[in-house]
Amino acid sequence: MPILKSLGVADPKVPRAGTLPQRSSQNPFEEVSGLEEEEAGELGTLPNGTSCRRRTTLEKLAGLAPFQLGWAPGRRAGSPGDGQPRSFLGRVLPPGLRRSSADFGLLARLQGTRAQGDEETAGEAARRLAFLRLGRGPKPRRASLAERVVPAGEAAPEPPPKVPEPPKMKEPLSGRRGPGAARKLRARWAEAVARAARERLEAAAPGAPGGLAGQLEALRARLLEDMAVVRGRLAPAYPAGLGAFGVYLRGYHGALAEWLGTSARRRLPLADRYALLHWHNQVYPREVLGLVDMVALENGELGPLLSPGTLRGLEDECVTDVKAQTRAALLRVLQEDEERWGSTEEQPSSLAQDVCELLEEHTERAPRISQEFGERMAHCCLGGLAEFLQSFQQRVERFHENPGVRELPPDTYISRTIGLVNCGPPLRALAERLARVGPPESEPAREASASALDRVTRLCHRVLADLLFQELQPHFKKLMRRKWLSSPEALDGIVGTLGAQALALRRMQDEPYQALVAELHRRALVEYVRPLLRGRLRCSSARTRSRVAGRLREDAAQLQRLFRRLESQASWLDAVVPHLAEVLQLEDTPSIQVEVGVLVRDYPDIRCKHVEALLDIRGLRNTTARQEILAVARDLELSEWGDLSPPRDRAFFADIPMPRASFCLSLPLFLGCLPVSRLARPNLACLPRPRPPSPARPRARR
């Protein structure tokens, strides 16, 4: 019987070179038996009667020449009987016979000592060798030492009882795995994904140009690229229940959180802090998480990349740096601009533009990060602006108080003053905008900013008006004279000078220009009415009163046309001179009372002393009529109309000096302060109160 059949396994069928084995049956062992029967007829038998089909099968398996006979175990090379096949007991086997172990040993030695051969043939031989080893079965059990020493005929002692080993727990081969093993395996998988994500992000960031902003952009690109690969290739390869995409997304999210946390702990410049906060709050949620499938997450949304405390610390550092940097920058800009104020060269001021650019750089970036951070930054910048404007106000006051600036050419001085006024509107608008964006506690800073700008504007307007009215003063001195009734020369000079100077004032921005023109309008009419109430004219007849009233109406119309051309918004001033003309021209007392009532109603700052001066100019000596007219003014003065104090820009008669009080000669001195209507005798004339005697001056010695 062949050797393989003695081991219970038939030889496999090996195809010839260049042919593929054809399976004729479902049982491979039937094919091998057929191969043996076929080859037995071809090879015949050995001299001892054994079939040669096994030797032929081994030659085909290994691709070798006929086997060489092995050596017997326990014999040295060169001893008698070398080269002859022997059994396990050392006996020489008959020719043509050899042990099965010798076949396998020889095959193993020949397999390792082949010098050349086809690689495919060697691999096939190795597989066949493994199959043959499995076919041999287990080694025969050898007699133990106790069995060997027991004499013949005696029973061998019983072996000691074997202690049963505890059963070994077999680990599950699939994910279904044990209750705790599934979680552990998933955790190990998530850790491996996180490590890979960390390596991917660390490799993408360092080589990016542009500082931290460039690195963050590189991280964004890497995240989107890797998530696209995970969604398109990796996630579909996993079972749907594993949630592979969510595992990868959480891994990248955690790796990114570690990278950002490390960056946030470093001392970053202000620009990098802005970039980090903006990327964390806006870019990552919108351009990264907004493009991935968040539904794939099992446990809802991802956690924040940075903790609230870390974000608050970054914002606090930004606010502190902005406060320090803007304060130094604003003072530097103000110092550089102030140095050009006293120069005679025409250089346009860019102070307001520079200030707005310095602050808007921060007030525009912060709201893009978060609304709360925008409010904090607006409050910080508004406080710095209020401090800057207070310093600006003080330097403007010093500039105008400096006697040296009067030596500048008038045009240069006016240009400098207009330039300072033009700083107001953009800075005021900036303060208002920051106050609207900032928290409620920003209101004090807004009020301080507005107050400083108002003072600068009023000071510059007063300087410009003073310069203009110094030039107009000679023309105002010609008003309310005899020549004024017959010649328009004085008013023509006033209108011509105001029109010429208005061309220079048009370089001022609209808001301060409207305020200045309104002030010039008010002040021009004050200067026009002032000589009238001082009594330069006395109307002794109705004809004279008519001429004066007509002239007042003509001048009022000409001034009204002038200031309309100058775009004055102070239309409340147009009626003051016509009202005065009506009081002078009307003849009946009731009409005069009505006109005085309208005058007091429209101009609450008028007092009885102004009405008395107007009646004196009219030449009204009738005490009864006089007191009836003054009673109307007095009643309105004591009523709620008199308690109303008009704002500074609506004051008119308050800027005209009050006529001196009068007293009656026929009454005791203490009655001089009583109103005329309470006097018993109406025919007493009221005279101006005498001035106190001046101290005697020492005469100069001759």
TrEMBL record:
InterPro entries xrefs: EXOC3/Sec6, EXOC3/Sec6_C
Biased composition annotated in UniProt, kind: Basic and acidic residues: 165-174
GO molecular function, one term: SNARE binding
Positions of region (Disordered): 1-52, 142-181
GO biological process, any: exocyst localization
GO terms under cellular component: exocyst
Superkingdom classification of source: Eukaryota
Family: Belongs to the SEC6 family.
Listed PANTHER family: EXOCYST COMPLEX COMPONENT 3-LIKE 2, EXOCYST COMPLEX COMPONENT SEC6-RELATED
Protein name in UniProt: Exocyst complex component 3 like 2
Organism whose genome encodes this protein: Propithecus coquereli
